[in-house]
Amino acid sequence: MVIRGERELRGERRGKGGRSLLATAAPFFFVPLLFGATVLEGQAVEVYVRGGLSGSTALVRDAVATAQVGELLGSEVDDEVRAVPRPGPVLGGGVRVEFWPRVALVADAEWARNELEAEDGAGTRPVQDLDVIQVQVGAQWAVRPAVELGAGAGLQWYRTEETGLFAQGSDTSPLVVVTAGWTPSIWDGRLAVIAAAQTHRFGTPVLRTAGGQDGMVTRFSLTGRLRLLEVNR
Amino acid sequence: MRRLLALLAALPLAGCDSPTLPPRATSEIYDFRLDTSPPQVLRWPSGTRVDVYVAADAAAREQLLASALARGAAEWNRHALYGEYEVARTASLSNADVVLRWSDETAPIDMSGCPPGGAIAVTTFCLDDTGLHLEPYPVIGAGDEEPNTVRFVITILGTQAAQPDVAERLVLHELGHVLGIVRHSTNANDLMATGVPTRSTLSLRDIATVRILYHTEPHITP
Fold this sequence. Notes:
The structure holds two protein chains of two kinds.
Chain A: H1 2-9, H2 21-39, E1 45-56, E2 60-62, H3 67-73, E3 81-85, E4 88-100, E5 103-120, E6 123-144, E7 147-160, E8 173-182, E9 191-202, H4 205-209, E10 215-231
Chain B: H1 2-14, E1 20-21, E2 48-55, H2 59-77, E3 85-90, E4 98-102, E5 121-124, E6 152-156, H3 164-179, H4 204-213
Parallel strand pairs in B: 2-3, 2-4, 4-6
Antiparallel strand pairs in B: 5-6
Helix pairs in contact in B: 2-3
């Protein structure tokens, strides 16, 4: 018991490969912050908010039953059930720090609300609301004066009622993201349009208990980014 | 830059490797169909909320049934992965789909046209003239204009009130019949086996069976 207590004090948890959430998340956030603190002086810093729409590929594809089951029952059995988050609003915000004339580092957080829907032979029906929270750090390159491309990594969480697929919660998922942005020559360049695609590994304890396998889910968003504050420009 | 563009293009493809659930085989389920000739599938339409009204004279006996219903509904509901059904309690008899009652008390509905059997616990329903739906039970004292929505009656033998744990398992089992598992499993380890249930949760076969049931085209809907 004492040994286990000491392990937990060190941040170790069973089932996470000995890594605590803090240890997993720390490199994403604390390293850039520590690095940034030493070099921020004199760098252009921009604070922004984002808002728009997000969508996702299917969270689960359920094959339901073998062909023999349908033959045994003498009735039509669904070929597949898909659980798909419906497109919904997304809000976010973050900080961009320009390190070189055309390169910026970004720390960003966003929240999205999607309604999970089931698609099967009976049609489409709502299942439950999902709050999707993601934090990420990355870099952006201004490939042209009004065009930027970016890439990053981060973490994502699904927050929802503990029922159905999420009856026993869900995992914290690492993600990778790529972005493309366009800044129109209006309003002093304060507004930009950002398209993002991120992919993460998804699975829940319920899915695995039912014999399922984790897989990759891709989320998309199209947001407008508004610069709120800029220093050292 | 080309690498970044290639990554952008590859991300949607990565989503093709979606999380999956494999198909269930015949060995993982048991026959849930109504024992007619030919056998028919009876279940609620997908996405239905099944409202259960608890009828009991004394507060203590009502509480016992309500507690059993709450546990039973939670157990069945947590295996509806995609919102196929939801079992819930209703305080209003006028919009109830199911009445849960003790056998030794007067029912709030007229059961003369479709009376319950004499088992320790029984779920009763009757087909209407079309054979495609269930006959509604008239609510006693209701006017002609008021709709009848009760399609199932769960009757628990009154003496079981002295054994709350058994009554709880019986209600859990009967809720399986209400959802459409209208036959008994031949495996004694399943909740839906014949006789007094020995378990208070669904077995893997019960879970697979109700999941298949709610993705099978029904012949009869309540």
